[in-house]
Amino acid sequence: MTNRPQHPQKAQQQTWPGNIQEMQPKADHGETTYKGSGRLKGKTAVITGGDSGIGRAVAIAYAREGADVVISYLDEHDDAKDTASLVEEAGQRALLIAGDVTEAEHCRHIVAQTAAQFGKIDIVVNNAAYQMTRQSLDEISDDEFDRTMKTNLYAMFYICKAAVPHMPSGGSIINTASINADQPKPKLLAYSATKAAIVNFSGGLAALLAEKGIRANAVAPGPIWTPLIPATMPPEQVESFGSEVPLQRMGQPAELAAAYVMLASDEASYISGATIAVTGGVAVI
């Protein structure tokens, strides 16, 4: 779309995990543009990292498609409350659950709270992620590597395992992978490794859950403008973020929403084990 912000953007940096308010330009999550058509009416969705970025765009889209939404987030309370307000403005129920998904017990708590309040879980979106830009292997501490694995991989496993008993036939699990799964970036070594594992996990999970009628897929975004970018990359890298793809710009979270809606909907009943690339023109094989 020609009205999307073009490269370059302002060099900037935030303290991790970042927030929406400080981003320049402001990210587009579909607040004023996404229009639903009842494709998820009556469904309940759990979204980790649902306060901002891709998760926020998915929460808005799901609510406007008729789903109640559970927003799991770390501690970005203002962003989370704002996202919940948008869900409620769409006429749907929103449940906010703060906490660290690296902890297995908290992941089980998310699922238990959802099941208690809504009675079922139709859609799980494992979207929470952690990354840090590092110039060399020596710069990656054991603790940082551990946090990356636990946020991006372990949490996905914990939540899927807890959620499946509450998911009816026709349920959908959608895991956020990355273009880096196919084209790993050396300065995002640990993050890229987790994204490759997410693609593999999603494919195996699709086969494992097929007899239950539950589908599992992944979405592989390219460079998307979320708080994670200014919070984990040096300012000069933020300035050129997205310029390397054929469309020569970063994508907006709103541009991911359609893929997540499609995979969650009953119209995708024969799509399982797939990875949907939303990369600004970069082929993911």
Q: Would you give an account of this structure?
A:
By secondary structure, this protein is of the alpha/beta class. It has one domain: 3-Layer(aba) Sandwich (Rossmann fold). It has helices spanning 53-64, 77-89, 104-118, 142-163, 189-209, 228-232, 235-239, 257-264, and strands at residues 44-48, 68-73, 94-98, 123-126, 172-176, 215-221, 275-278. It has a 7-stranded parallel β-sheet with strand order 3-2-1-4-5-6-7, sandwiched between helices. Helix 1 (53-64) runs parallel beside helix 2 (77-89) and helix 4 runs parallel beside helix 5 (189-209). Residues 1-37 are annotated as: Disordered. One of its GO terms (molecular function) is oxidoreductase activity, acting on CH-OH group of donors. Residues 1-22 have a biased composition (Polar residues). Keywords: Oxidoreductase.
